[in-house]
Pentatricopeptide repeat-containing protein, mitochondrial (Sesamum radiatum), 773 residues
Amino acid sequence: MLKVIEKGLSNIGVIFFFFSTIDYLRYDWIQCLVFFMDLISSFNIFASGSATLSFGNPMLVLKSSKFYKRLYSCSSAVDSEASYLTKHIDSFLSNSVLDSRTLLSTHAYIITTGHAHNRFIASKLIASYASFKQPHSSTKVFDSLSFKDPFLWNSIIKAYFSNGNYVQAVELFSKMPFFGNLPNQFTIPMVVSACAELGLLCFGMNVHAFASKLNLFCGNSAVGASFVYMYSKCGVVDDASLVFDEIAMKDVVAWTAIVIGYVQNGESDSSLQCLREMHRVGGYDERPNFRTLEGGFQACGNLSALTDGRCLHGFALKSGIVSSHIVQSAVLSMYSKCGSIEDARVSFCEVVNKDLFSWTSFIGVHAKLGYVCECFQIFLKMQANGVYPDGMAISCLISGFANSMKILEGKAFHGFILRRNFDVDRIVYSSLMAMYCKFGLLDLAENIFFVGHNQEKDCWNLMVVGYEKAGLEMNCIKLFREMRHEGIEADFNSVISVISSCSRLGAIHFGRSIHCHIIKSLMFEKVSVVNSLINMYGKCGNLTMAQSLFHQTTQDIATWNSLISCYADSGHPFKALTLFDELISTGLKPNTATLVTLLSACAQIASVEKGRKIHDYIREQGFEYEVSLATGLVDMYAKCGQIDLAKEIFDSMDEKDVVSWNVMISSYGMHGHGKSAINVFQQMEENGARPNDLTFLAVLSACAHAGLVDEAKSLFDKMKEFSIIPTLKHYACMVDLYGRSGCLHEAESLVLSMPFAPDGGIWGSLLKLQNAQ
């Protein structure tokens, strides 16, 4: 280097001399050479032929170097050096750089020709380095500039943002004002999107205020759309909606942001409403693109809105957007979630490039309906086509075993995935726990939970829900307490399960503490959570608090059902029937659960007139006679003394579950028709329905009221055939029957043979029988 300096070479000469001997360049070397350029006198090598080295003319050395040939290969022999310089820089600005080596060489050329401080060239360099995943090199270019305007700040922020370095993008934005530069309409969308990815809601709100102060919202849909995306991503969809409403000229980006935002926050109904409004507006800029339709299909799938989904599919076909792979996959996923196998099959066949998502969706639709054999066949076919399953695909298949209640097969598949060494992630373990909880095999679910997976939030929540579903309320509450102690966040399902457990146990004090937790955790806006609180307070006898919560929340049909059920179950059937009239006046339509509760209220007061009124309403509104609704009618008419009408409705039922059979047997029993109750029990067996412990309790009670001792003995012994172990209630019923029939010896023998200690009721019946004799 000293030899070169002594010879008096110019800046360009020194640089090109070194480039002629270097085959691979690094940015750090360029910076080093630029430093030496400032120490050397300026002498134009192109204008003078006197500057020579001992090994010949420097221009000849330059033109024989690899670097020169690489740069000048496209130049015409007649072009002047200045003309080539312009063309080369123009080419760099207008075309993408093919590789990082060419970028480094071009950067060196730009520095040596004195164009490094040109703002457009510098911006191009920043973007080019970013495209090769080298934002640190972009920063060096940016830092070397003496003058930085918003255009260059946007370039460096974009360099980090496009590479997923969101923290650095936000930090650069924060530095802008300190260097005398204010953000513009191009800066804000990148920074706000970075806040969304990082979950920086508070910082994003500050940016919102800053952008409003700078008046950047006027006539710029991109700025507004970025805030819609940020608020939605951070879970504040109401604020996203407010920002969306403030956008004067809404384009497809803004509409897509709000449609997807609603879906991501569990408000699929609102998402479809926005999509309908977008279609109604119908301008060129408001036409849905493939991302908008993807959000719409997700909303339809979440709501199981098959009709809306088919309409949207037709629109996609008409618009020609359905050829997009993203839309094809979204259509398949929608039909899968809606449970439409035929539509899903057609959509699956239309997908050209079947990826893992497509196969998983197709497995999912069969799993949802419990078609396990088909699920497994698709699972094997997927692997035969070279697509390896991930945790989601395996979990779909596991849910198929759970939905079909195939216990042995589910256990076998658990062993299968372990033997085949599939990737078993937290999704698979959560699915296995959910499957075993649904099977009622809590010990196996606990094995998975306590052996290495008790640090995952999903597993904790699943176990809490599993205990509640299995009727282990104390375990549910205990695990929830441990969960809170470990600092693990409970989801809505866990909270609802704990509230239900408190409701069954009458644990009003712990229920109130959960109520406080709900308020502190901002869960009170979730209607399903408030509905569970209404149920709890109602079941625990605090109807005043239940009524207060009812008026504090948004009232959907489930909220009305909760309050009506509270009054009906608490011995206030007239208030429950009054609430039904209020419900009709609001314009909400009762559902099956509402009507079943009202029929129960009519049965409590034995009001056949009010019962007929509810029955007429069911006919007028065209309600199908679902099993639960028809069973409610049977129970109501029987308790109102209309046993023949109850039997008529029972016989007209196309489908009967065990509850229906139990209600009909109990109805005959309460009317003293023991023989008829036994006949219904025999019909139940002939129809292949399996009786449970409540069935035997109902038929034994009917025998007790009718004094049918021999028949009762036979039925009591028959419980063993169905592997049903008699409970205290069954023994009490038999002792009562012997007491009514004066069979003291049989009663004493039965009490002495009991596998557990008799309660006060049984001893009382036995003592009463002895006194009578």
